[in-house]
Amino acid sequence: MNEMPLHWQKTAKENKKKYSQFLKKCNQREVIKRLPALHEEAFSKIDCLQCANCCKNHSPRFKQPDIKRIAKYLGMKEGDFIQKYLRLDEEGDYVNQYQPCVFLQQDNTCSVYEVRPSDCARFPYTDEDVLLKREALTLKNAEVCPAVFTILEKLTAL
What is the rounded distance in angstroms from the CA atom of residue 103 to the CA atom of residue 97? Predict the structure, then answer.
């Protein structure tokens, strides 16, 4: 199942300009129609548990409902959860204090998967319009996630 493209991170960096131009000029309606099938195809070949780059190198935003849900799951007070695991970033969002994520286990599974932050549940946004509407995020994610890279490669090959 795991068909991780070779040298995908290097290629993603090299193709950043091409991806950016595509995202700016594409027919968004047509691309949005294609995303679910491209998403399914990419994730039928790429196993997140073999990669976990997102958990190793980046942090989701922890919104208030996420904090409340995860703290309850861990049997902690929200304030204690924030103090122990989170920090405020430059944009005023709560993010992980440390990398890799403290909830990432040795086998690349997540110890809070059932109650993970909504950003984690939605990542890498390849089956929704975020891929088109947040260009900077998409370009960054292409260097983090082989699925984003694969989808952008297919979209720009047309």
Answer: 12
What pTM value is reported for the model?
Answer: 0.90
CA distance 46 to 41: 9
User: Domain coordinates of the chain in residue numbers?
Assistant: 8-50+125-156, 61-122
d(CA 89, CA 109): 25
- Neighbouring C-beta atoms of residue 94, cutoff 10 Å: 21
Q: How far apart are CA 79 and CA 67, in angstroms?
A: 9
Instruction: Tell me phi and psi for residue 43, to 5 degrees.
Output: -80, -5
Distance CA 2, CA 51 (A): 10
Which amino acid, one-letter code, is at 111?
A: S
Query: Per residue in 2-56, pLDDT tens?
Result: 666 678 999 999 999 999 999 999 999 999 999 999 999 999 999 999 999 999 9
